[in-house]
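Sat 14:20. Reprocessing the chain from the morning session after the first attempt stalled halfway. Input below, unchanged.
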Amino acid sequence: MINKLVEKIQRTEAPIVVGLDPMLTYIPEHIREKAFAEYGETLEGAAEAVWQFNKQIVDYVYDLIPAVKPQIAMYEQFGVPGIAAFKKTVDYCKSKDLVVIGDVKRGDIGSTSAAYAIGHLGKVQVGSREHVPFDEDFVTVNPYLGSDGVNPFVKVCQEEKKGIFVLVKTSNPSSGEFQDRLLGERPLYEYVGEKVAEWGRQCMGEDYSYVGAVVGATYPEVGKIMRRIMPKAYILVPGYGAQGGQGSDLVHFFNEDGLGAIVNSSRGIIAAYKQSAYARFGAEHFAEASRAAVEAMREDIKSALRQK
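Finished this time. Tokens:
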């Protein structure tokens, strides 16, 4: 799957992943009203609004981008109906030939970690039959339980030719409380990056590993360090746009060939119509605003990489 992701990035010239992280406050009133009219102000109504919102955005941006990243918590908050909307979103995105990165941030040990890996990336045996539960192409993984938590995912990646992105240096302000702690003279995130490179050597694609890393755009100097430590790992870069990252912050995350990183924007794209730059579209044309935001992001990144 890493080979497909790289190929789609090259074809679209857009190292961009759209974060499908819908809050009800992002969803225009006309979509919410229609869903509530059919299902009531219920969990089912909320899930229907989320699904219809996602579908329209995907319809307007799928030809511009290689990948999407639904954040499962935004669906889990609506219970079982929300999980059903998550699965419908994954399936619909795959029908549009998008690479799907499930932002699930799983990480446990032993059979529990194996069950997470099978549920999101693999196949589960039910009697004499195999079933594919969620069927994302990649998932995000928390490494802080060590190799016991990551190796089951690596095993499924080897079997299914799918991938993971391991949390290394996240974009949130308090990430440094743990990730920046010094072990000797080096921060913890460097040691995690070295483990990512080690895990990645077990399952290589053509040029990059199935094991990638998450490094926030809000820490560009860290991106430079991690690019050196993990030369074969694709880096998923959150923090663009709403969290403050911009194209000029991203150049160190990429290799000289312009590959090696994919940049996430969530509310900066899916809620673009709420921004003054895209207010002209209005809530009725929110998906067109999302398309315009993707196009602007693509040009920002391309411009930055040309100046690298």
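The chain has one domain: 2-100+160-306.
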